[in-house]
């Protein structure tokens, strides 16, 4: 938001000295001309009362322009956060204005009214979570007016997602889902498909956004405001002219998945108007246009000179003659009349002046104009824009972890939504479109991807609101999923059959298993496209056995549960014992099991005797503990063994010092020094549990950190489940908590981090590919977003860590060390607009009267998972890539109610499992006739000798009992065809390259689908019955 850019350098108010010289000469020559044109202007205004000066929506090429004359594309827009300081509904309705004045409803209302008054005017809108709210409330007349404005190109949409998503914390599938949700609304209501990306406010920009969420969606351009202050200075330097460029972000997807990209906000590090031209009636006092010479303070010439000066300054920092003025900012345009009153006049008089051209425009029109300047060679960028800093000592790397409980809840809910959609399609087909629960759940998760939601940078009460929306959506969607499961399993009982889902299993709470006094059927659902054989854990209170559908007892084991705590440290009433059993579940389907209650008390877990050098070991892995702490990991297959000393520590969050007043907070991570403090000075406790299915170590590190390390039989990785909090802050010190692994891997300052779960990005200590970094924070400046995976390696060994939720982390701070920040408590606001410290507590006072927004009550406790694996670099991806899918999509237990018996104990939607390197990442009913299917290659280029090669899937035989009658390949967001996506691609000329990048050929319509590394292909399919049994 605008307040967050206070230290970003702002917009420049003065023209550079060499620009002034040229401008002074032009201004002197034109002043007489402009004065002489005043009378002409009056006549023109009278003659053109019914229409404006220029023809609306003409492309830049159609404008009469002298060679080299600058054309300013005036792009009216508003940036409307889907929650930040206020909740999404408060922002829409204009409520709670004691926090921030904002009323999105009035923005859209007045824009639609004002657009009708002048056909030249344009407006660009982004966030469909708001626009669909407004649309639902309109009568048919207003809807028809709005549709006509869209059809004429006056009202345009860019980005078009449910929100403007974050780019550090979201999983790639959530980015795709929220984009698709918004695009579907726009296509259904307006027949509109956005052509440009508009990521103005996110705090850094990912390779996934450029390659997947731009090029593969069909965007011709991508625009954003925030980049590192050092990078910004270089890009806007007139000697370099790199404020606009071609971004080719994915080696796996190749040069075809590139996108033209540019900075907004007149290249000032933000996204608002140039200085002096902000006419928002709540946040600005910029001078209005006064063009009546009969009145005092006539200012046409002054205002035109200022506009021209800003235009020439901006044009001097990019290439070509077209530039864009982003006219709007946070929640602006509530009074659209004032904006258009001034813009109409400045455009008119600038064009009369003649030194430059000005026109109402849209991002789409702007990219078209840039593309017509075909002789220009553009700079090339191939890395990403993380981490972002807006000044020395001001690295926005804290938000990679901020609000970890919400981050984990969003990720967990994401996989649940995929399962709900699959069940709807398999169980009810087109009937599932009526399931309001799926709709509400999708919308709630769409809002949660916003760059202040999953990012963790909203106020506390807004964070509560995000979580509440997700919880309500999950609960409503379970009704449809339960009915689908009952149908697919042919569940039978004397009463209505349903299925329960235990949402608090991570607290060892599950009603059906804790009070089981009679036999109970349940199913384990597998949302992946490969069959799975895994250990499942369920909390139990009584003595139970697990039976398969043939009546055979399944091998099981009792282990102690982790601490049964709520997220604020209260005893949750969970079971102290957990049952482990080994389950075999078919691909994209379920298998039924039965709990059988037996007499007697539950068998206690076998707690083994520990020694100073305890070892957990199976066929493939050995974990050694020294002084009750993990110290060594061995891959027994390869013979690779590394030192791996784990430690729990915390960095003291800065509150500002003599070097810089910058504090650690929701956005910014700034430790007081580069050395972390152990959370516990003594030797941790260790309890060893051994059994037939898994061995475990349960550890405590003082009073507020504990963990369980599990090594399952047959596993090639270790699983760490940690519990952290409440973070003690009574000593007046903010704490940023990390888990660190110190190894003997010679990593040479290099690590690799994932981009939203897709491409792995190489990182180097104190290094940026695009510019020479002046490093001011050796720790925070080497932290990166870890959405799902990170590894360090040398020629012999690789240590890979997977996380179940987005976190800040690094393998670049020190050689051989890998650390992950799992939790934060900061005691001072970091000055980026949220205006409260990041210290999560159970309660917060209202934002009225005295003591507004005060945190009180118990602090936040979080629980999460890290998976660790060691192996040879050439073989590492073979293990961790599929494991990443399994961590995202765990086996999900659903428990039958009313003593139901399941007549169909097993189900798979697939005729056969997909290859190990291909996944079905999306499957849902799209409309009455078609199902949307996304296939994804899950390995990156060069990650594995065989699994990184292209993979082929035969759609014709994909589904059990069904045949595909038609498969229409679509763009990533579905609403346009793949052929249209490829047709939109522009062959940009790039510096240093002899010819433009080549795009792939249009799809040929074959049912044999080949996917290259990390490619995702999207289809709308029509299904018909095969001779065998149908799954619907």
Describe the structure.
- This protein is an alpha+beta fold.
- The strands form eleven sheets. The chain has a ten-stranded antiparallel sheet. Strands 20, 21, 22, 23, 24, 29, 32, 35 and 36 form a nine-stranded antiparallel sheet that branches. Strands 12, 13, 15, 18, 40 and 42 form a six-stranded antiparallel sheet that branches.
- Helix 12 runs antiparallel to helix 13.
- It starts with 16 loop residues before the first helix and ends in a 7-residue tail after the last strand.
- Mean pLDDT is 91; it is low at 5-67 and 1028-1032.
Helix content: 10-25%
Largest sheet: 10 strands, antiparallel
Strand order of the largest sheet: 19-25-26-27-28-39-34-33-30-31
- What is the count of helical runs? 17
Tell me the number of strands. 48
Gap from first CA to last CA: 47 Å
Counting helices, strands and paired strands, the structural category is alpha+beta
The residue-averaged pLDDT reads: 91
Beta content comes to 25-35%
Specify the overall morphology. globular
Kindly provide the radius of gyration, computed on alpha-carbon positions and rounded to a whole number of angstroms: 30 Å
Low-confidence stretches: 5-67, 1028-1032
List keywords for this structure.
1032 residues; ten-stranded antiparallel β-sheet; alpha+beta
Question: Could you give the topology of this structure?
Answer:
Layout: H1 17-47, E1 71-76, H2 88-93, H3 104-115, E2 123-125, H4 128-136, H5 140-152, E3 155-157, H6 172-190, E4 196-198, H7 207-215, E5 221-224, H8 229-235, E6 244-248, E7 258-263, H9 300-315, E8 322-327, H10 336-353, E9 357-360, H11 363-372, E10 380-381, H12 404-428, H13 436-448, H14 460-488, E11 491-492, E12 499-500, H15 511-514, E13 520-526, E14 532-540, E15 544-548, E16 556-560, E17 577-585, E18 589-597, E19 607-608, E20 615-617, E21 621-626, E22 629-635, E23 640-652, E24 677-678, E25 685-689, E26 694-700, E27 705-712, E28 718-724, E29 735-743, E30 750-754, E31 760-764, E32 784-786, E33 789-793, E34 798-803, E35 807-810, E36 817-825, E37 841-844, E38 855-859, E39 862-871, H16 873-888, E40 892-896, E41 901-902, E42 906-908, E43 918-925, E44 931-937, E45 951-954, E46 962-970, H17 978-984, E47 1008-1011, E48 1016-1025
Parallel strand pairs: 1-8, 1-9, 2-3, 4-5, 5-7, 6-10
Antiparallel strand pairs: 6-7, 11-41, 12-40, 13-18, 13-40, 14-17, 15-18, 16-17, 18-42, 19-25, 20-21, 21-22, 22-23, 23-24, 23-29, 25-26, 26-27, 27-28, 28-39, 29-36, 30-31, 30-33, 32-35, 33-34, 34-39, 35-36, 37-38, 43-44, 44-48, 45-47, 46-48
Helix pairs in contact: 1-9, 6-13, 9-10, 12-13, 12-14, 13-14
